[in-house]
Amino acid sequence: MPFACDHPAGSPPAIVIHAQDRSRVAGNGARLLPPGFLSTSGSQIVDSRGCNVRIASIGWNGTDGRPGASLSGLWRVSYKTVMDSIVGAGFNTVRIPWTDAGIDAPLNGYDDKLGWIHTTLNEQLVASAMPDADGHYRYVTTLQLFEKVVAYAGEIGLKVIFDHHSNEGTAGQQRNGLWFDRGPGSDGTDGVVSGTVTAETFKQNWVRMAKTFAGNATVIGFDLHNEPNGESGRITWGDGGPTDIKAMCENVGAAIQSVNSDVLIICAGPLFYKPPPSDSGMDPQWAAPAGNLTAAGINPVKLPRADKLVYSVHEYPDEVSDIARWGLAEAGPEYVDRMNRTWGFLVRDNIAPVWIGEMGSSMRTQGQRAWAATLLGYMNGEYAGQGGPRIAAEQQPVGGSWWLIGPSDDPPFGLQTEWSLGNYRPDQKKITDRLLMQGVR
């Protein structure tokens, strides 16, 4: 029997997308998130009416690369087609990365190394009516691209989460492990090139993003920093030093809330492939390659608006995370126990929501399929008997974000076989379908 919030007023019962001047209904019956901003209540994310919702998102890469890099796929299709394919697959949110060095960079639409832009299909991204003397058009900046993406997302009911991926755009996971690359706590580089971004610059760039989208309920969350690496950056929790990630989340989160109090503030646990040092502020007993949130229960992040805090981890099998060489399981009881101890207890004990900010697999091997079965089962409450979260009938399962839309040359190779509407990989789609349905476990 459906619970009271199963069909919120004003929310469509199925996803509707718009492409080529006609409407389509997603075949799997997944639903968009209701209008308005989101908040939290205990371990649940709730809408403006207080109804529990599940963020079922997918990542869209490209703007995590070097300055001028565009969102992926725009060399073949329009950005609107990519977004239609996201909604068509049943997702209600898209997670989009940005970098400090790239936020103001004009898109470099003719450099193959960055990913060129199909001008005819993306004429809204052309900033000059005529090409220059070399035959090149001038394109909008990355931030202006984001504004156009958010505008179309609002038209089709898709929500957006922005993720700070790195400072300079030199690596998917910043190699110095931190959210800044210049000043106290840093060696003056991002691990690849000389640093240009201080902790204060990082904060002010987030404030600028927050001001840009203030009051726009299409943008529901800010993921403060992608995959902080505790071993590379000597990250601590709660000691007040320059690499204290709890202090960063509080400082940057409060600055964001001073200009945009509506968005979710998403704080990632630092990655540790082996147990953290005893003086780190985190439990030194447990490796946490997905993100160490062991201290978040007794020493939580505190924000002026406490009902906007969401924690995040990234869960991957060995094909992406390389956990096997550390002797860590990717499936089964040992994997369940690791999730229980490093982040699952926050949901189980109704402390705070946890959102899986990245998860994905090509699903090509038995081990990868076992990983997916364990993780999705855990998120959906199937391991309550082994210490995992128990999802009550009126609650929503743990939300997550699949990596990634479109095809890719790297594991996990993307949800689609080509940039277009449809062409979803069946083995991956079977798993993402388990993530999409609100209230269905």
Overview of the molecule:
It is a single chain. With 441 residues, the chain is of the alpha/beta class. It has a single domain, classed as Alpha-Beta Barrel (TIM Barrel), CATH 3.20.20. It contains 9 helices and 13 strands. The chain has an 8-stranded parallel β-barrel with strand order 6-7-8-9-10-11-12-13, surrounded by 5 helices. It has a 3-stranded antiparallel beta sheet with strand order 3-4-5, with no helix packed on it. A hairpin with a 2-residue loop joins strand 1 (16-19) and strand 2 (22-25).
Please specify the SSE layout and strand pairing.
Blueprint: E1 16-19, E2 22-25, E3 39-41, E4 44-46, E5 52-53, E6 56-59, H1 79-88, E7 93-99, H2 142-156, E8 159-166, H3 199-212, E9 219-223, H4 230-233, H5 245-259, E10 264-268, E11 309-315, H6 318-321, H7 332-348, E12 354-359, H8 366-379, E13 400-402, H9 426-436
Parallel strand pairs: 6-7, 6-13, 7-8, 8-9, 9-10, 10-11, 11-12, 12-13
Antiparallel strand pairs: 1-2, 3-4, 4-5
